[in-house]
């Protein structure tokens, strides 16, 4: 079976963690993974949000939480969206998932804040385009 995942903020961390833990156990194949402002390297608000204090440190090293090379996304296309006005997750943290060795990687900055990353019509259109067309490179924004 094939699925696509669209996650906002900590949902991206939860989804990546699940995929890594079940990469060889679950027959589901994730074709596309969308991360909207997910703090793979932690969050500006870390002092207030304990579980995001360290973010997902192993992603920066290109290894999974079990110390092995990332394989969960090797056959997955990844699209990352982040906001230029985001006061919680900076660009470097949101885009760190590219070190998880996805099959294809795209990223885009939007002129919005963290909470609006899943509400803006342009973002929704871009995510739909990514999910249903399969081609992002050369897309005229």
Protein architecture, described:
By secondary structure, this protein is an alpha/beta fold. The chain is built from 4 helices and 4 strands; from the N terminus they run E-H-E-H-E-H-E-H. The protein has a 4-stranded parallel beta sheet with strand order 1-2-3-4, with helices on both faces. Helix 1 (10-22) links the parallel strand 1 (2-8) and strand 2 (29-36).
Rg, rounded, reads 14 Å
Given as residue ranges, the uncertain stretches (5+ residues, pLDDT < 50) are: 47-55
Mean pLDDT, to the nearest integer, reads 79
Share in β-strands = 15-25%
In helices, the fraction of residues equals 10-25%
In short:
The protein has 141 residues and is of the alpha/beta class. Helices cover 24% and strands 21% of the residues.
Could you give the topology of this structure?
Elements: E1 2-8, H1 10-22, E2 29-36, H2 57-60, E3 77-83, H3 91-94, E4 104-110, H4 121-133
Parallel strand pairs: 1-2, 2-3, 3-4
């Amino acid at each position: 079976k094939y699925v696509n995942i669209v996650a906002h903020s900590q949902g991206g961390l939860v989804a990546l963690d699940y995929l890594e833990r079940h990469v060889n156990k679950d027959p589901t194949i994730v074709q596309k993974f969308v991360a909207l402002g997910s703090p793979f390297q932690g969050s500006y608000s870390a002092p207030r949000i304990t579980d995001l204090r360290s973010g997902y440190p192993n992603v920066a090293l290109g290894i999974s939480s079990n110390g092995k090379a990332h394989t969960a996304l090797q056959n997955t296309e990844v699209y990352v969206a982040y906001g230029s006005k985001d006061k919680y997750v900076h660009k470097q943290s949101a885009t760190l998932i590219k070190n998880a060795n996805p099959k294809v990687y795209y990223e885009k900055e939007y002129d919005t804040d963290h909470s609006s990353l899943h509400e803006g019509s342009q973002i929704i259109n871009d995510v739909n385009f990514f999910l249903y067309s399969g081609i992002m490179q050369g897309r005229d924004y």
